[in-house]
Amino acid sequence: MGRSIALGFARHGVDVALAARQSARVEAVAEEVRQAGRDPLVVPTDITDPAACRELVGAAVDRFGSVDILVQNAHHEGDWTAVAEARAESWQAIFDVNLYGSLHLVQAAVPAMRERRGGAIVLVNSGAVLSNPPNLGAYTASKAALAAMARTLAVEVGQWGIRVNGVFLGGIMGDNIRLAAEHQSAAEGITVDEWFERRNATLPLRRMPTPDECAGAVLFLCSDLASAVTGQHLSVNGGQWTT
After folding, report:
1. How far apart are the C-alpha atoms of 188 and 202, rounded to whole Å?
2. What is the pLDDT of residue 172?
3. H/E element holding 71?
4. This prediction's pTM
5. How far is the C-alpha of 174 from the C-alpha of 190, rounded, in Å?
6. Model confidence pLDDT, tens digit, residues 136-145
7. What is the rounded distance in angstroms from the CA atom of residue 163 to the CA atom of residue 173?
8. Homologous superfamily of 2-171+211-236 in CATH?
9. In 3-state terms, what secondary structure has residue 229?
């Protein structure tokens, strides 16, 4: 998702700052951004570190003059443990990324946006908030808290022309879902193709969206086409659930 969002912005003429913990991965995306015609800023960042988030925003302001858009896409996938058996320490580690990491980035970016009297923030979220899958209690709770934070933030910063929205994503055709398909199809005694056929058959559109399609929703929320949209969450999931 991070790759598709960055490339989507670059292809629409936006200068991008790329941040991730793994330097090799972010550098690979940076090269693709260069091929798309933009010169990206690359800042290896751990969003659980407030100082690192401030350094990221400061570097973007120094390089580009301002911060117009913030997209927070990093996430912790959870501990895959039932709530009744979970450890508080595990929940804390998940919240440190999914909630507090976003909080650190928002607190670093809002002053720069307030100074320019405008901006767009998108916090990438999950359909787990709506579907409550078993063994993902910590992940779901952290994402529900993130959604609440986005709505409250939208009310607070709208006076400065800053919009805040989120996207609820479901299954996405990419590496993660293919890995899950391999494990689950083996457990069910079917082929990977058969597993995808069954999964897709449950969706109104009969297919899972691609990362680029999901990125399109993020770009829309950051564009002038969504200039009157704030405090909202857009479900992008092939119709997996409706709200």
Report:
1. 17
2. 86
3. strand 69-72
4. 0.93
5. 20
6. 999 999 999 9
7. 29
8. NAD(P)-binding Rossmann-like Domain (3.40.50.720)
9. coil
Name the residues annotated as catalytic.
Answer: 139
What is the three-class DSSP state of 74? coil
Quote the CA–CA distance of 234 and 223 in Å, as a whole number: 14
* CB neighbours of residue 202 within 10 Å: 11
Q: What are phi and psi of 233, to 5 degrees?
A: -125, 125
Each residue of 172-203: pLDDT tens digit? 888 888 888 888 888 899 999 998 999 899 88
Beta strands (DSSP E) in 161-239 are 162-169, 233-236
Residues in the chain: 243
Contact 112, 50 (CB under 8 A): no
Q: Encode pLDDT of 108-128 as tens digits.
A: 999 999 999 999 999 999 988
What residues contact residue 119 under an 8 Å CB cut-off, 6+ apart? 67, 68, 69, 70, 109, 110, 112, 113, 161, 162, 163
**Cα 156 to Cα 66, 163, 165, 224, distances in angstroms:** 21, 10, 13, 20
Residue span(s) of the chain under CATH 3.40.50.720 come to 2-171+211-236
